[in-house]
Amino acid sequence: MTPEPILSVRDLRVSFPASGGWKPVVKGVSFDVLPRETVAIVGESGSGKSVTSLAIMRLLQAKASRTEGSAVMGGRDLLALPERRMRDVRGNEIAMIFQEPMTSLNPVFTIGRQISEVLVRHRGLGAADAKAETIRTLDKVRIPNAATRFDAYPHQFSGGMRQRVMIAMALASRPKLLIADEPTTALDVTIQGQILDLIKTLQDEEGMSVLFITHDMGVVAEIADRTLVMLQGEVVEAGTTEAIFRRGAEPYTRALLASVPRLGSMNGEPLPRRFPVVDAQTGLAVEPAPLVSDRGSEGSPVLSVRNLVTRFPVRSGFFGRQSGSVHAVQNVSFDLRTGETLSIVGESGCGKSTTGRSVIRLVEPVSGRIELDGYDVRALSPAELRRMRQSAQMIFQDPFASLNPRMSVGETIAEPFLAHRLGTRAQARETVADLLQRVGLGPEAMDRYPHEFSGGQRQRIAIARALSLKPKVIVADEAVSALDVSIKVQVCNLLLELQEELGLAYLFISHDMAVVERMSHRVAVMYLGEIVEIGPRRAIFENPQHAYTKKLMAAVPVPDPERRRMKRLIAAEELTSPIRPLGYEPPARSYTEVSPGHLVQAA
Q1: Is 462 helix (H, G, I), strand (E, B) or coil?
Q2: Pairwise CA distance, residues 23 & 452, whole Å
Q3: Which terminus of the chain has fewer Cβ atoms in its 10 Å neighbourhood, N or C?
C-alpha cells in the first residue's frame, strides 16, 4: 500500500509578464513526494525547475507572477493559504536551501543568532534553550567546534561550511520536507560530496523527504529515489532514478545523460579529447575524432614559473597594523609549452586562482621568477606590462560580471584590439566578425548586448575578446564551472578546437576533475598554496600518489544510481587556514619523481 504523499503537486502553472500578456514558464507540472523519499527535478537553466520550487513555497512576487494549480500538504492547498498561515508553513513544515548561502545569510548577525531566531519563531523556545538546540543542530551538520562557532559571522566560514549553516537553519524546526535548490552547484567536489552525504544521513535520522533541484546528473544518480526531467517548463519524463538512467525514453533525457563528463573515460588516452557531441533530437552521442597534434610535448616553454610566492597582508588592531599574511601561493614552479594545457586543480582557498592572476600580474607576487613569451614579467614597467598582456589573456568564471552591459558585443571584443593600436576601426570590425564566427556566434551578434545572450553564449563572447589580441597563453579561471552540462561540453570543445587551430597554451584552473581529465596534457594539484603533485594527465589520474589527490578523485559524483545509498564518509574538516604570523617562513619542500615528469611532494 502506497503511503500518503507529504506533498502532492497537480497541474502547476506559472506565468510571468511579457510584452502584450503573460508568458508561461511552468506548464502543467504534477508530481508527488512520499515520506522519506528524495525526488529530483533535473533540467538545464531556463527549464522551470527553480521556479517550480519557488511557486510551491509561495516566494514569487504576487504582482509579478501568476500561479495556478494546487500543491497539497497535510490536507491544505499551499497555493490558496492566506500569507499569514503560509509563513507558519515556511521554515516549519517546509524548509528551503538555496544555491548561494552567502546571499541567504545576513552578514551583520552571527550564525547562532540567525538559527536561534528560527527556533524562537517556530518552536517557541527561550533564548537559552534556543542556543543549546542551535549548537546541537550545528553539531548534527558536522560543523567542527560548534559551540565556539555560535558567535561567528557568515564571512568567517568557508563556502561549504556556510552551506552547512543553511542546512542547520533549514533543519532547526524539523521540517517534513526539505527543498534543496542547486545546493552543491557552486561547491568544490569534496565539499559537494560532504553535503550529499550529510543530506542522506540527516534524511535517515530525521525521516524527512527531500525535493532536490539540480542540473547535475551525477548528483541525481547519487541522491534521488525518483527523478523528473524538465524541458521548457514541462516534465518530459518521470520515473525511478534507475529507470531514467538505464532506460531513458526521451531523447532529451538521453542527451543530458550522455553530456555528463565521466571520470575515468580517458583511461589509456595519451592526449586531450573533445567531449562527445549529443544530438538533442535523437539523444545520440557522437564521439569526435581525436585531436591530431601534440604541440605540448616539445619545444621551449612559452611560460616558465619558478618559486612563485604571493601573500596578502592581514591587518588588525586600532591602527590597522599588519599582524600576519595570507600565504596564498607558496614556492610554486611549473612550465607551460605552446599548444599545451596545464590544469591546476584544488579546493577553494588552495591558491589556484591567485596563481593564475599572479602569472599575468593582476595581483603582485612577493617573489619568484615569471618568464612569459620572452618577458621577465615581474620586472616590467606599466607600459611594458600592457604590451605583455597581448601575449597572455584571462577568461573569468562569470562572463556577465566581466562584460560591460553598456557596450555592444562588437565594441567589447574590439576594445582591446583598438586599445593596443593593432589596426583601424574597419580592421577591428573585420576581426570581430571573424572571431564571432570562430566561437560559433556569427557576425550578426556584433550589435547586440550581453543581456541578450545565454550564459554559454556570453562565455563564448569572453573567449572571442581574449582572442582579439592573438595571445599565446590564456588563463582560464573556472571558465566552465558555472555552465549547464551541455553548454559546458560545447565551450570545452571550442577551447580544444581553438587550441589545435591556433597553438594556444592554456593554464586551466578548475575544481571539476572530470572536465580536467578530458582537457589536460598535464595536471598540478594544489593544497594550501603549494603544488603537492604534478605530472602528465594520465599519471595523475591513473596513478595518483598524494593523499589529497586521492581524496579529490574519490569525491567526484558518479552518474550511476547503484551508488544512491553509498556514503563516501569524507571528513568534514575545513581547509586549514593559510594565514601565518609575521616572519613565518614555511619549511623547504622536497619532491619525489615517481615516473617521468610525475612529481609528488614528500610527506
Answers
A1: helix
A2: 17
A3: N
